[in-house]
Amino acid sequence: MLTRTRTVIARTTAATIAPTLALSALLAALSLAFTGTASAQTSFQASVTDTITRPAGPCANGAYACGTANIAGYGAATWNFYTTNSTSAYSPCGSTYTATTYFTLVSDPHSTLVVDEGGSLCGLGHDGAAYRGYYSQGSKAFGFPFAIVGGWTVDPASTGQFAGLTGSGTDQVNVAGAHYAGSYSGTLG
To answer: How many Cβ atoms are within 10 Å of 18's Cβ, its own excluded?
Structure first.
């Protein structure tokens, strides 16, 4: 009787352990797969600059701001920032915007990273005095510094080397007179 009980317990234990080990192996494999996916994310850094010729104002192609970019790991690019919506608030950082931004590689004009972004327009100074000056003269005003501060996500319309990528990040572009300069940072995957 004792031998038979030991045999039944051994079979029951083996039957219980085998699925548990298989489940553990599956979870370990999935963990490695997700770790591999997470490590496939790469850092994204781009600096942008633009100088608008007075009194022309926004870009000839209809972009609110356009200029050059340098994308780490990709090189020189053009930068086009198209405002899609905005709300105005007469406060230092209360106005908001949405935009679609295009980075097209100079070395590969068929590769365009498209990002959808949104954020705030922030006047400089304690009470946003410079921003109030911008409001009084409109978007073609020169000499009233402010900052475009936002977040972005990759748009599926990206092409070439950027096709199929996902990612997100933040950006800040400082505007002073007719000069725009700033940076975009985040991850692509």
So the answer is: 10
What DSSP letter does each residue of 109-132 carry, written as one string? TT-EEEEEEEEEEEE-STT-HHHH
> pTM surpassing 0.90?
no
Fold of 42-188: AOC barrel-like (2.40.350)
Give 10-55 pLDDT, tens digit per residue.
Answer: 454 445 444 444 434 444 444 444 444 444 789 999 999 987 766 6
CA dist 137 → 63, 127, 131, 143 (Å): 19, 18, 10, 10
C-alpha 46/C-alpha 70 separation (Å) is 5
Contact of 70 with 46, CB cutoff 8 Å = yes
